[in-house]
## 1
Amino acid sequence: MENLILLADAYKYSHHKLYVPGTTRIYSYLESRGGLFSETVFYGLQYLLKAYLEGPVITAEKIKEASEMLPEVFGRDDVFEAARFQYILEKHGGYLPVRIKAVPEGTVVPVKNVLMTIENTDPKCYWLTNFLETLLMQVWYPNTVATLSREIKKIILQYFKATASEASQAGIDFVLNDFGFRGATSVEAAGLGGSAHLVNFSGSDTLAASTFAKRYYHAFRAPGLSIPATEHSIVTLLGEAGEAKIFKHVLDTFPEGTVACVSDSYNIFRACEEYWGTLLKDQVLARKGTLVIRPDSGDPVRTLLKVFEILMDKFGSALNEKGYKVLPPQVRVIQGDGINLQSIREIYAALQEAGISAENLVLGMGGALIQKVNRDTQEFALKCSYAEINGEEVDVSKSPVEMDATGALRTSFKKSKAGKFKLVRDSDGYKTVGLHENPELPDVLETVFENGKLVKDWRFEDIRKNAEI
């Protein structure tokens, strides 16, 4: 997978012949055309540039490998032309003659705006712009995870502002924790998607995410933080009769700091009432730190309400300044099962209705955070909008007519933009305009990659600041 020449959709290899003769420049742009959320967090391009495009990525060995494989793919010898890549190797030393501009990473941009542009810088490499579409389009994934994570943070902020104490607001970055490593399709996906979550939060068990942030975004320190915690293999080791003994062992092992213990191996309600809330109550309250009790099955809303009812009966509760009940600081709850965008809304609404502060609860989110998204979640597309043909400048676009469910014809949402663009920001926010429009407003798009070299190198801490709510 290190051979860039082979990292494109197969049909792309015929395009150097299919562009009309005289084509010397192709300019394309990336946008989120709409989707689930009204704005998008731009993140992840720098990884793709560093991992796949930076440096002399075209070599004789890679050309040879492609020359052997692609005739097998097409069953003919007149599609792939090794000479196209040989030219890049000889003329440019294997560096890609393209220019990529993009919004600063972490920037939150309303949908239907340009996020990135790409164009060839060598007229003979007009075909290269959209050849790179396949790889560059994969930026949809970290963009979408970062966007989803940020939208969840908005919900959490809403309920913390309504029900939680002011002192607890400082802990919001640890409310949503990434549990998605094992459910990701690959280590690369876990690292890239997991680091996208860390643009908004600091809680994560996906260690690959911190590795990515440090390796590709100069994170000063690991941005994903975690705590000691049990799993069912630990808690069930002595059987149902030995569960309380295991719980005590957890408290004895970590007498200070935060520790989490999964407590639904047999009966979550008995565990809360008889073990944590009675047998081990004094030890829990004597700790210099917090025990986080984890239910891991059943309906999240109903289970949590019952768990909080038991815990507040056993450990007591106080009313914060907003009039909502809060457990003693030594006890909190984490819900990591069945967590998604909708259930998070339902859980916090139910807690508020029951008079329970949001500060009592933290969340763990796995596949729904870094796996249950796709390119259509935010409707990402990369389209050609400008070309130069025989010295003539040509604005390019598509405007499909489609049939709706009633049989009526309408213009598709897939209608694309035409021309060369810049992204500007005025008092109304971001908007996409023609390259020479609004000359008084600077272009938010920055050149990040040119002729095989990284021009802009974003640091993770700066990206987090850009995405702040």
## 2
Amino acid sequence: MRLMVEFTTEPFELDTFPEHAVAARRVVDEAGLAVAVGPFGTGAEGEAQQVLDAVTKLLRETLDAGATRISVQVSVLDDDKTPEGVGTQ
């Protein structure tokens, strides 16, 4: 089974890339997930266990890096279509 996780970390900072956002991106990259960055969040997809392990690590590491809120949504991917609103980068 393949999963997609979509996440946003806060607080938002317009002048810099906050440390908690850097930590989140590093986690999904290190997990080997396919990553898509959008204007309101980041999406990453991969095999179920790979995504679930990354989500656990993402929550811990972004909170440790100063996130005050983390919004997460996990979706099961249908092999025949991409979830609505997902782009690529």
## 3
Amino acid sequence: MAWDETSIAERARAFLAGHDPGTVDRLEFLRARFDAGLAWVHFPEGLGGLGAPRGLQAVVDLELKGTPDNEPGRIGIGLGMAAPTILAFGTAEQKERFLRPLWTGEEVWCQLFSEPGAGSDLATLATRAVREGDEWVVDGQKVWTSGAHHSRWAILVARTDPDVPKHRGMTYFVCDMTAPGVEVRPLRQITGEAEFNEVFLTGVRLPDSLRLGEVGDGWRVAQTTLMNERVAIGGAPTRRTMIGVVAGTWRSRPELRTHDLHQRLLRLWVDAEVMRLTAARLREQLAAGHPGPEGSGMKLSFARLHQEVSGLEVELLREEGLAYDDWTFRRPDTVDFIGREAGYRYLRAKGNSIEGGTSEILRNIIAERVLGLPAEPRADKDVAWKDLPR
């Protein structure tokens, strides 16, 4: 069927007529919405979608506004990274098993990519996966894992062949976070919280049925995850933004205003509008599940803008901006930039230029893959991983 705005809106209204959110259990409502193809309309039928154009999701979301949602802030890694990777590389059985509980929020996902010695250069990762019959035995350490403390599953890249160059010897898996040998430890941040974790994998046995893609093809699979991650971070639509919060303070507190702060606020407001419109254009251009390197530009802009806006807010509020509400150690489910005070926003924004790909690496990607500039010399490109200096 060729879907358009009228037909997709009619389907959403028909769904609501048969599933009153006031009387239907929240989880049952979400499961029914997935089964009706109204979860992510651009996914195939039977997998939460209708095979419709991606842009029609906004029509569905408008029709279902005010109904129970799947708490996207809590399950962002599953929605933005795991799901499109599973769709692109998963078997029919994997798609059937994972996508529905992922979207409804019944199963939370995390990302086991970065390591203490492989952050910006992910391809040097050392976590090993050794095959034993129909299982893989995984040993290693991952770090900066958001939400690992409440995750059921993880997307994992591990080294399966140390005798080939670093990009060719990796394999991509789904990791059971409840499996024996998985240990999650909190990493306390500058905010006082521990949304991040380090994860130790000791003799973790994963069945081969949890492998995504071919053996040794993990780098290509991971690129799908990383490109989607950057779009999810930098290009996601938001109802309220940090620049809006600062502008609200500016309007309500005229005694804080100075000419210099006014000029900076205007410049950042323009930057925020440019980023918002660019993000909208990027989402419209995305082929289903296959974003390009342009998402790196959005993520780079997002990090810079967040840090500059949060710095302006602290300066605008003067001594009030130095206050901090609560240093109590806790392990939150989500990152709340808008619901907290200026001090939290300022400290937490410092991580934006690291998480989801460092700004330095993103500049390289933009230079080489978007602008077509010459690549940096890479002496280790054809060297077996086991022979790399460490």
